[in-house]
């Protein structure tokens, strides 16, 4: 069996998993709780179906497949960033004793990372001659890195927030963390590999997505555990971290303002 045949088999199985996971998330209770994650899965199904149909009719080297692939990648990246917000909202929202917008602080940091990567994608040189696809690829990899870190935070520290491992929020985060971590590793290996090895290595990304789907399906098929209340010590530590972050940002803005003012004064003196 060739690598191309294995890739097609994994792709088809992954599409079946997408449909199954999407159907589970389209249940009213799940859709109302995780609308962005539901939208991500439905969009993944539509995108995969469109790519398969285009590859069979026009081929993977056609312009239609090219534009469809990169447009789908850009939209998928945006939806993935939305899933971060959804998971963090579900993680922080019940903690009413925290300062207002505590969870939003984390989202702003991730948004800043993605925005910075967009600027880098526009101005840094690339082996890809197409500026738009270079921008989308950079944003996709940066978002993948940001989401892997964010979801790893949820997986590692969920229990401190009263979220047990059998909670659906934990399952969503675990699936994305595994999938994005493998995807980043595959991208790094491909960058230093011979061209003939790329198709074989790329299969690992599809397998990782398939495993993530299995995790999501398993979590939404079983009864989830109830959430517990975190201790006052944990809440106090979270508040301290947020206060320290605000202070650090304030110090940096003050320093930048003073440097700009000093530079302006020197130019006026000259």
Structural class: mainly alpha
- Largest sheet features: none
Overall pLDDT confidence: 77
| Proportion of strand residues | under 5%
Write a brief structural summary:
Helices cover 80% and strands 0% of the residues. It contains nine helices and no strands.
Description:
With 270 residues, the chain is mainly α. The protein folds into two domains: 228 residues, Rhopdopsin 7-helix transmembrane proteins; 40 residues. It is 80% helix and 0% strand. The radius of gyration is 22 Å and the shape is globular.
Secondary structure elements and pairings:
Elements: H1 3-25, H2 28-33, H3 35-57, H4 63-92, H5 102-123, H6 131-157, H7 168-191, H8 198-221, H9 232-269
Distinctive features:
single chain; 270 residues; mainly alpha; Rhopdopsin 7-helix transmembrane proteins; 2 domains; 9 helices
């Amino acid at each position: 069996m060739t690598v191309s045949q294995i890739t097609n088999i994994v792709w088809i199985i992954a599409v079946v998993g997408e449909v199954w996971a999407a159907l589970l998330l389209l249940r009213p209770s799940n859709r109302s709780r995780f609308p962005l994650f539901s939208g991500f899965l439905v969009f993944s199904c539509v995108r995969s179906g469109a790519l398969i149909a285009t590859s069979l009719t026009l081929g993977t080297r056609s312009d239609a497949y090219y534009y469809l692939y990169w447009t789908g990648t850009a939209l998928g990246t945006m939806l993935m960033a939305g899933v971060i917000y959804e998971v963090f909202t579900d993680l922080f929202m019940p903690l009413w004793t925290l300062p207002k917008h505590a969870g939003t602080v984390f989202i702003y940091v991730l948004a800043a990372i993605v925005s910075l990567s967009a600027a880098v994608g526009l101005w840094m040189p690339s082996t890809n001659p197409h500026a738009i696809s270079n921008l989308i690829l950079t944003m996709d990899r940066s978002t993948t890195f940001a989401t892997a870190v964010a979801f790893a935070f949820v997986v590692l520290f969920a229990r401190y927030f009263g979220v047990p491992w059998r909670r659906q929020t934990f399952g969503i985060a675990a699936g994305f963390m595994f999938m994005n971590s493998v995807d980043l590793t595959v991208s790094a290996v491909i960058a230093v590999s011979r061209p003939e090895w790329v198709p074989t290595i790329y299969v690992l990304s599809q397998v990782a997505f398939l495993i993530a789907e299995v995790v999501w399906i398993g979590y939404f098929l079983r009864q989830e555990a109830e959430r517990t209340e975190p201790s006052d010590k944990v809440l106090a530590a979270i508040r301290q971290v947020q206060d320290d972050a605000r202070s650090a940002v304030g110090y940096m803005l003050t320093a930048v303002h003073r440097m700009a003012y000093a530079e302006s004064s020197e130019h006026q003196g000259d």
